[in-house]
Amino acid sequence: MSRPLAVLRPEPGATATAARITAAGHQPLRVPLFHVEQRHWPPVAASDHDALVLTSANTVRHAGPQLAGLAMLPVWAIGEATARAAAGSGLTVVRTGTEGAETLLDTALEAGVRRALWLGGESLRLSEHPAVSRTVAVYASTALAPPLDAVRRLAGSVALAHSPRAAERLRHVLAEAGVPPSALRLAAISPAAARAGGDGWDAVAVAPRPSDPALVDAAIRLAD
């Protein structure tokens, strides 16, 4: 019998992931660990920067009308979903990274980027890099405390970690509910997310690309 696939991400991504799982003939199990909220952010002059770095589609969803004022900047994006969201908002994507933010920024630096503006969430990682001159948070991903019964139902599932922070939060709520990591399998969207989850899982798989379809495919392989 195939294991259920636990969707931990907030909306609207959770619905998209659950639909993808269902379409593949598997059972989604929703236990959201975060709630995403827009944050006010100060005006930024596009002329002060030579590129725009986006590492989450949530940035595009929650940046608001100010994002249009940065449309002159070339976008370096992490993941296909982020690139699609940026292009759909009228931005010009010049590179879509598939190996994490550090690799993308290293490539941007080699291409001559020295004053990139990095927009993201309040928990931005790798905020210091020679290609980046400023980081601005446009949204917050607030941790939720799911009911203990919901967390305990994760035992026997494959949990999908869409970020390092999600993997860390999953381990925390499991500990609070008295569920050992060995009761679950972990599908991580990146090596960084797998590392953040720590050791002791029944099995771990890392998506070959930082995208929701690739993560779902990796989780299905663990579930079967």
TrEMBL record:
Residues 17-216 form the Tetrapyrrole biosynthesis uroporphyrinogen III synthase domain. It comes from the Bacteria. Signal peptide: none annotated. GO terms for biological process: tetrapyrrole biosynthetic process. GO terms for molecular function: uroporphyrinogen-III synthase activity. InterPro entries: 4pyrrol_syn_uPrphyn_synt_sf (IPR036108), 4pyrrol_synth_uPrphyn_synth (IPR003754). SUPFAM superfamilies: HemD-like. This is Uroporphyrinogen-III synthase. The lineage of its organism: Bacteria, Pseudomonadati, Pseudomonadota, Alphaproteobacteria, Sphingomonadales.
